[in-house]
Amino acid sequence: MDYLQQPQAIEAKSFVIIGDIIKETRPDYRFASPLHEAVIKRVIHTTADFDWLDILWFSADALESLCTAIQQGCTLYTDTTMALSGINKTLLAQFGGEVRCYISDPRVVRRAKADGITRSMAAVDLALGEEGGKVFVFGNAPTALFRLLEHNMPVNGVVGVPVGFVGAAESKEALVASGLPGIAARGRKGGSNVAAAIVNALLYSLREAQ
Fold it and tell me: Where is the Cobalamin biosynthesis precorrin-8X methylmutase CobH/CbiC domain (predicted)?
């Protein structure tokens, strides 16, 4: 049986197919910029779901703010170890940045229990107390996104794509209304894999631009 076996060739072919399907099914669709295109196509590549053409929302300053933060060596904070695992940490480190997930940190476990809140919320509290530039990457926990917005503190950017039925859509609409530089998945869809894909799309685009 003849089939592609090299990972890079498989990925390249996948993106060709994605582009062809968009042209065939959405001939009038226009991407706002090459970076906007790169992010959406990588999310489609990750999920095989073309709904992302319509449901992925970007604030006017999201892409510029997120890319600048990465280039300045910011810290990314994720709400799950899955999102942390999916982000290209080697490439992020080349820009001087790192990614952290505090969901299982003993300080977070203690605070969540003492205050009667989720660990995702306590992890946000811990992250906001640290120095340096911050980008929050949420793919699973609406409570984390709500908590960040409750603090009303300036951050370098937010990738807000929690998936689910309880509070997920509402938390992302709150991000849309917040004025923070952010990318949001409107509605119920999302996930840690989507969150990581968005970050990786930015990293790969920045690498290519060097």
Answer: 10-204
